[in-house]
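re: ur question from the group chat, yeah i did fold both. here u go
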Amino acid sequence: MSLRDVVNPHIRGLRPYEPCKPIEEVERELGISGSVKLASNENPLGPSPRALEVLAASAEEIHRYPDGACFALRARLAEHLSVDPAQLVFGCGGDEVLELLAKTFLAPGDRVVMPWPSFAMYPIVAKGMGAEPVFVPLTAEMDHDLPGIAAAASEGAKMIFLCNPNNPTGTSFGAEALDRFMAEIPDDVVVVLDEAYFEYVRRSDFPDTPSLIAKRPATLALRTFSKIYGLAGLRVGYGISSPELIGYLDRARHPFNVNRLAEAAALAALGDDEHAQRTREMNASGIEYLTPELEALGYRVWPSDANFILVETGPGYADALLRRGVIVRPLGGFGLDNHIRVSVGTSEENEKLIKSLQAIEQQGPIASGAPS
């Protein structure tokens, strides 16, 4: 008998998440320098200066265990969101909160309904518990097919994932559409609203999820400090839900799952409204610059409520850009072979992307799937 024979079948069949290579490795492999990374939806302004100050001061305390309840962060975030502190759960990034949801609610054979393409971790956490992911394709406009998701859920779903704004498309839906959807979903189905890009949303009718949770306790909103707060490397995510649901997640949560430095930095960043506003303004300006420039090159660009944009270029463009020192996210793994996801960068980074694409186009068409 081999090790493969004793591994749980639902783990054996998983395909691991494939992260982008770090800039240093890309440059070493290709013999280039001055690369820019526009692949991981990170904050191009970096972390809040207040967070950096706190990190330096907190480093002397890393021999102490963190506050396992995130007491200070919980209190400040609850005030910021106008929710009860008992409505919050924290994790090592939003991914851990997804794992807690799967661990708490899913068992082998359970059905989990999700849009596709969407965040790659949804099927991974579902399959990791032996549950069955049920994929509902996006519409032709790359929007959630909410009626289709509701129909799929009516066939015995245990959990539903909705990513709003959606990753990797940047599209979003409003409060009225969500209300119609929720009216079709039984109260005992756990609905997870992944709002990792919530702070970037520009539409005025975005759902007020804390209010929705008050009316429907089996709902959780997932948010993060990785994006607008610029703390992706420290990994702090959180869920907002009813105290009952949060209580079950806390039963499954490991103690000290958010480290001391991450807690301190998140608390400091939460109070830095100026940095968050600068980030929002830079992001909006970047989208307004990139969209017409990309369209002028003949590409289709989808409207985005996030800090990235979906671009239909044709095949081979991610590799071609890589060789020019611009790292973007290829989307072949999502069934979008002709598309790339581009994170909004600084003005200099955005301009490098456009100049690189202009140079690629001047060389002539890219052969299907071939690097250039």
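okk and heres the other one u asked abt
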Amino acid sequence: MKTDSIFYQLFQTFPTLLFELIGETPEREDEYQFLSQEVKELSRRFDGLFLPPSTSQEDPIYFVEVQIRPKDDFYWRFFAEIFVYLGQYQPQQDWCAVALFGDRKADPSLPRAYRGLRQSQQLKVLYLDELEAKEESSLGLEIVQLMMRQEKEVRDAIVPTQALMEKARTTLDNPALQQKVLELIETVLVYKFTALSRQELEAMFGLEELKQTRYFQEVGAEFEQRGFERGEQQGFERGEQRGFERGEQQGFERGEQRGIKQGKLEAIPRLSAIGLTIAQIAIALDLDIEEVRNAIQNQENNS
């Protein structure tokens, strides 16, 4: 998943995160509306657009752009989008541009043509790797800090992840919001550590919590589908070959059926690995419980 997509979810979940990052508290902070709005003439979208209430003339519009890797034309593109937006929508409020860089190396330096904006405080620049940890930091800010950490190994992320999960459990009363935060943390970890195993994710989240996440459920479904497709294709090929050699249509059909059966059997260890019981697997794959039990036992004996 791309970094800008993660930040979109972060700002959507924690609308006040922007103001915590830049150290400001507008009068109507809680009334800001977060959008990812398109600039039609350029066919581009801002990573974040924070609109104050239409009745407010004092609070500015915030244009937000996240850049993790160096991009030479960043400022030219960013301000072009802003000025086209201003001309297109003609808002009555003042505005402020917020550039969030992964580190100082990602900042191409402000062109001379725009230095007046920096001096007038209409441009704010922040380096995410320099965020300081604070006891009163919000969940959103701590997720950003987790994403920018420089762990050398996966185990370095286990403790801060578990601390985040505990904070979400104790500070968020809304179950739906808790689930969304859980999936956000999981998304960050999968993005940051692309080779994370199920056991490593389980060590961070706990198995029951992990089963509820969208990524975990999609991986389980993908494993199952792969098993079906691989077995079905093998059955098709074997059945076709045997039917051709023997001149019997029944050979083709038997081979295809065996392939489908083989696909189901190959899916059993994967479904067992993500925590499904023997009974649940048997129902999902339309197999006998004894067949499922034997397949799991054979897998354990061969491992």
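fwiw on the second one: Residues 220-225 have pLDDT under 50 and may be disordered. The chain has three domains: 1-148, 150-195, 214-302. idk if thats what u expected
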